[in-house]
Amino acid sequence: MADRSTINVVILGLSFMFIFTAFNTAGMIEETVIQSVQEEGKFDGGSGYISLAIIYTVFAVANWGAPSVVSVCGPRNSMVIGAVIYCLFIAVFIYPMVWALYVGSVLLGLAAAILWTGEGSFLTLNSTPETIGRNSGIFWALQASSLLFGNLFVWQEFTGKEIIDAKTRIQVYVVLLVVSCVGTLMLLLLRNKKPSEDRSVSQDDNSGNKSNEGPLQAFKRSIQLFKTKEMLLLGVCFAYTGLELNLYSGVYGTCIGNTKAFGEEAKSLIGISGAFLGAGEIIGGAAFGLSGKLANRHGRDPIILLGFIVHMTAFYLIYINLPQSSPITEIVTDATYYPVLIDSKYYVAVLCGFLLGLGDSCYNTQVYSLLGSLFSEDSAPAFALFFFTQSMTAAAGFFYSTYLLLQWQLLIVVVFCVAGTLTFFQVEWMSTSHPSKKGYTQIN
């Protein structure tokens, strides 16, 4: 019979699966839906890219205060508070208004910071040094299932529609709202471990558990942790995960929907590619979770290397398959006429979705595992800094997505992919080359 910690990890993953079935699906279709609302002569001044940029900018800044909130409210209660705001944001699109979209974006950025920081802390508290890799994989596979189910639903609803009419929009977002509420309620099922159970990562050896720190102390720990050599190096890898998050969660779906070579199926193809992206996330998370012992033996580098190869392949195929102007909303009608290297193929677009998801699972599961292991005594600040950096670069990506052609966006992502992979290798080598050394290096 599974112990309480494993049950907690599974419930956590299922809760996030429901919550992000709603939010990830809403985010991937947000710009496309807003374009359709604008073509009806409504919603002047609204932009899906700007909304997402606001979310990730506020998310980034709020991560500095998120550990303080988690220290006061506890991981579970923090996640519940954040999830309720996610539900409210989904509801905005039932009857969209520009002011509600942007106010909701600000509130969602705050909610995301405490939701994800609470998740990282809760996952670490329910893991041991031996199970942190496995639990990261289990959580990621379950959470990533959101991309599969949500996008299959969108594919069904958007098939044959060049414009997303009001009836379809309302139906889609009401369903997503209900799903998000279910995930929020499931968070209430999480329970603290019994004292007699296996020690958590944060209780390993003499590290001490700082989860009971006050808000001011938690903020100071974040500042101190930010100055460590390992965290500064990992910041480059964190930045890459933010840029590729921008690419797959907002830009790629818009590019597919704006490619007129796909005909009437362009909008529904967003859902199909998103479902395959989710399949890649699930396969990667499940594989790395089940192979936890193998990863412990050979380290995290082979999995990161796999992610690097997979993502580089995806970027090249996207470059040759989609029109370079397809991310830019102002020239949607001209997207097909911009030069492409090959005739756009729908099956290549779907394959790229799968590759983006598989590569993303490689990077994120190993980042989770490394943070939970290396920064075990400072799990909340460590995860907050990860999400701070990730969301800052994601926000930057959504801002420039409105202006840059696809080729330049891909170039930026490729440069950070190379740099982020190399810095991850460096930190992994530093953490394993001195097995007797615990923790991390403080920079004076």
Please give a structural write-up.
This protein is mainly alpha-helical. The protein is built from 15 helices and no strands. The chain has helices spanning 4-39, 48-62, 66-73, 75-92, 98-125, 132-158, 166-186, 215-226, 229-257, 266-290, 292-298, 301-321, 346-374, 379-401, 406-433. It is globular, with a radius of gyration of 21 Å. The relative contact order is 0.17.
Topology (SSEs and partners):
Elements: H1 4-39, H2 48-62, H3 66-73, H4 75-92, H5 98-125, H6 132-158, H7 166-186, H8 215-226, H9 229-257, H10 266-290, H11 292-298, H12 301-321, H13 346-374, H14 379-401, H15 406-433
Indicate the percent of residues in helices: over 70%
List low-pLDDT spans.
Answer: 204-209, 330-337
What sequence of helices (H) and strands (E) makes up the elements?
HHHHHHHHHHHHHHH
> How is the biggest beta sheet arranged?
none
Give descriptors for this structure.
444 residues, mainly alpha, 15 helices
Summarize the structure.
This protein is mostly helical and 444 residues long. The protein contains 15 helices and no strands.
